[in-house]
Amino acid sequence: MKLKNILIVTEDLERSKKFYKDLFGLEVILDNDGNVVLTEGLALQDKKIWESFIGQDVHFNNNASELYFEEKNIDEFVKKLDNYEMPVAYVNKLMQHSWGQRVVRFYDPDGNLIEVGTPM
After folding, report:
1. Mean of the pLDDT values across residues 59-69?
2. What CATH architecture is 1-57?
3. In CATH, what number does 65-120 get?
4. What is the pTM for the complete model shown?
5. Tell me, what's the pLDDT at 74?
């Protein structure tokens, strides 16, 4: 068995595609009527489609999961975050763990939690 994608739900596919391209360099591989697959295995799905599949409402900002990215030049990445055209909601600004890894945590425009850290 092989994990193929991680899917997150969005209220605005265009906004999310732009966010993940601008900040993370992810490119669209497939864009199919409310279902989008990006490079690195991230998939986006329109909220209305997801709600019809699961038969329930979507609850954003639940903090039950996190997308984790690694970035060698984290200082430059944080500058990019700070200057992004939409305000970024931080969980924590750039910090350093006791084991030496530097990380920043924030939310995407739909409230999905993201961590970016220096490589371990």
Report:
1. 92
2. Roll (3.10)
3. 3.10.180.10
4. 0.94
5. 98
